[in-house]
Amino acid sequence: MSDADSSRARALLDRAADRVFDLTVLERLALAAASTALALLIGLVVVAAAGYDPVQFLRFVFVGSFGDASATARTLKFTTILTLTGVAVAIAFRAGVFNIGVQGQFVVGGFTTVVTILWLAPMFPAGTVGGVLLMVFGTLAAVVAAGAYGALPGILKAYADANEIITTIMLNFVAVGVVGYLVEGAFRGEGNRAPNTERLPEYVSLPRIVYDNPDFSILGFAAALLVVALVAVVMARTTVGYDMVTSGFQQAAATFSGVDAERTIVTTMTLSGMVAGVAGAVFAIMIQGYYSDPAGVGTYGFDAIAVSLLAANNPLGVVPASLLFGGLDSAASYISINSDVPVQLIDGIVGLVVLFVAAPELFRMAAERIGLGGADR
Amino acid sequence: MSGATLRTDERSRLLVGTVLVVAALAVVSTTVFDLPVGAILTVGFVERALQAASPIALAAVGGLYAEKSGVFNIGLEGFMIFGAVAAATFTYLFGGDAPSQTTLWLGILGATFVCGLLSVAFAVLLVRYQANQIVAGLAVWFIGLGFGPFTAVLLWGNRNSPGLTSMSSVTVPGLSEIPILGRVLFDTSPLVWLAGALAVAAWVVLFRTKYGYWVQAAGENPEALDTAGIDVTRIRYAAVIFSGVMAGLGGAVLMAHAGSFTGTGDTMVNGRGWIAIVAYLFGNYNPIGAALAALLFGGLDMLQIQFQTAGIELPNRLVNLFPYVAVIVVLTVWGSTRMPSSVGEHYESEE
């Protein structure tokens, strides 16, 4: 009904993508570093203005993220989830679709994993083999459920022209509300006072190797890296990936060369949701071991947007970017124990990083003014 | 041109269709499920719906101006969070634990001022430094989600403020005696009036003044406006700053009606900024239409209390989701609206 409109919206996206892809790798790194530094600086000013010691705060940020083995394990724990959610966001952004709904898909995936494992557990032998099988089935269930939850806004966008930015955000609220309702009621573990599901059986867990942290296993991190590699291959080497990326770059050219735009949007959103589902499964199995009210599970799906942007929506770039944000999250948990600076500050800093990444011109003009620019022109 | 006529046709068809579906649902639900409609549609409900709609309407009118001028301000949600926390902060700083109505008004004023300053910075990033509008708008949301509760923890040691004070109703003597209408309109929060008046004023300015035409031209045909000697950049600055101020005021009104700031979860704003965007899309970029759409969402938001008093057993947590589901339905049924042609395009004057 509105070809002109959707092509205009598409042109808008193309221009936004052009701007991001215009940058060279070096410029991108400089942009990421400058954005993070400026955001941290503003954070420090706020810390000082609020009457705390900014030097101490900065020290806590470093000690709390990579200071010792336990800090590193905690950082890697957050990095694992952020890598997966970040890749989920990157898939969509790269194809020119905004998936702000990774948080909701992550919640749906994690909850499905826990419910599936609890449901199947009696049918499998208790022990390592049963545990592995249950984890595989739990993750598959998450992939299916979250993929479907991601496909929904894709279908609404492709066939009813409903703005996916807004539908995905609304679906986040719906996922948190519905899962929260189920966890409080029908799926609350027997005799639980808190709104939590029953715990997963002991043997459904990832082994602790290298790091001795009950919430982190290097195998979880390895699984995340595997998914990254898989997505990178799909995006770069398969027809589906090729169609997605060309749609993101040049909608008109893609349509001309026979790419079905509607179907590509749905595929993209489904794939993006599936990866978010893996993130939910890893979170449920590796970190929580049960499912709680999703209003409090952490905003991994939103931080993932920052991760993806910092990585210029490149699946491989997501790994170092999530290491940075994983470090910030880890520092936040450290600060909340060891200092009385409110940790919400870290969320604000993450937001500021996003804001500055959105405006590369800011740094380009600033660099020109102090005589650094021009080298790459 | 033909495209536009077709759209109007489709639009009215869809509107009629929507009304029919809603009517059919109402009939089915009353007869088959025996819903006590009388107990749901009370005067108190309309009053609460108007109060719930005011913040959404204010933010929607602001966002509409920005988009009309060619800049998509997707940061409304973030500005509302800043407005709400700033209003609570100022009310507390001026009035302590038991602030008066005057301090509450000062709090609203202060919040509007702070959001004005923030929108200037945001507008500079968007217009001068050509930031990606969608990403920058999302960033404002994230920053609000961080700094809103941060401020609350600094001041009160908790993500939520203590109970401050809420806006009391103003009763117009005489007029409030009118049955039904009197209570709804003349014995209510003055902020409902403020929101209504601002929506009407925004309509008049946008569609009946020269400045309003400039705003529209900045979004539709900036080249022509530039040729006519009007500074497009300046118009866009004004519209973006206005949108931030209105969203901030919306957040402040939300706080003033609630009487305290809530910083847990997605904060007390809880998606209202996003709903505001849908409200002006639904209202087809007409400030009065946007306000009416806000009233629809406000009504859905308040259904929960009605269901409780009418004795309908529906879990709160699910009833709370009505506005979000409604947004998805509205977007799906109505599809995308006709955006101004130059939204998202950075304009540089050729001099």
Characterize the structure shown.
Chain B: The chain crosses the membrane at residues 12-33, 39-64, 71-93, 105-127, 134-157, 191-207, 237-261, 273-297, 318-337. Chain B: It is a multi-pass membrane protein. Chain B: This is ABC transporter permease. The complex is a heterodimer of chains A (377) and B (351). Chain A has 377 residues and is mostly helical. Chain A contains 15 helices and no strands. Chain B has one domain: ABC transporter involved in vitamin B12 uptake, BtuC (Orthogonal Bundle), CATH 1.10.3470. A two-stranded antiparallel sheet of chain B has the order 1-2. In chain B, helix 3 (43-68) crosses helix 12 (272-282), helix 3 runs antiparallel to helix 13 and helix 4 (76-95) runs antiparallel to helix 5. Chain B starts with a helix and ends in a 17-residue tail after the last helix. At the A-B interface, helix 1, helix 7, helix 12, helix 14 and helix 15 of A face helix 1, helix 6, helix 12 and helix 15 of B.
In the CATH classification, which architecture of chain A applies?
Answer: Orthogonal Bundle
Task: Please tally the β strands of chain A and state the result.
Answer: 0
CATH architecture label of chain B: Orthogonal Bundle
| Largest beta sheet: strand ordering of chain B | 1-2
- Taken in chain order, the helices and strands of chain A follow as HHHHHHHHHHHHHHH
As residue ranges, the low-confidence spans of chain B are 1-7
Low-confidence stretches of chain A: 373-377
Task: Kindly report how far apart the N and C termini of chain A lie.
Answer: 43 Å
Number of strands of chain B: 2
Number of domains in the coordinates of chain A? 1
Q: Can you tell me the overall shape of chain A?
A: globular
Terminal CA distance of chain B: 32 Å
What integer value in Å does the Rg of chain B equal? Answer: 21 Å
Whole-number average pLDDT of chain B?
A: 87
Mean pLDDT of chain A: 88
| SSE order of chain B | HHHHHHEHEHHHHHHHH
Radius of gyration of chain A: 21 Å
Q: Write down the CATH topology of chain B.
A: ABC transporter involved in vitamin B12 uptake, BtuC
Question: Main sheet of chain B?
Answer: 2 strands, antiparallel
